[in-house]
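Most newcomers find our protein records easier to grasp once they have seen one. Each record describes a single protein and holds just a pair of labelled lines. A learned vocabulary of local backbone shapes supplies the integers on the structure line. Nothing more is needed to start thinking about how sequence determines fold. The record below serves as our worked example for the rest of this section.
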Amino acid sequence: MPYDLVGANPSNSFGTAFRVNIWLWHDYLIIMHELQMIDRETARQLMFMDGYSITRSECRYIARALEGSADMEKIRSALDEYSEFRPHSQCAEFINLNYVENLKAFIYFLRCCGGFSVH
């Protein structure tokens, strides 16, 4: 089941929308919460596809913070902490090229979307 993130004021076509599957989106929420980019209530609200929105300034902050974690060690640590709750058991192997490329695409979306809502 995909989550559709819809850009509020996109600066280009890439910022118009971003589709992410349920498992990857939950990982992103874990990462953003554990690395203190968003609070617990925001993470909870973003789990629902009911139009909850994030502002342009919040998107820019999250993008900068994710880029600051580009070495993946903090991200790996945040995900490993929740490994018992994740649907797959290979957390250590989960940080692979595809995951990193998807995360980079999400960061680019954050920079281009002008804020987004979850649907």
User: Anything to note?
Assistant: The radius of gyration is 13 Å.
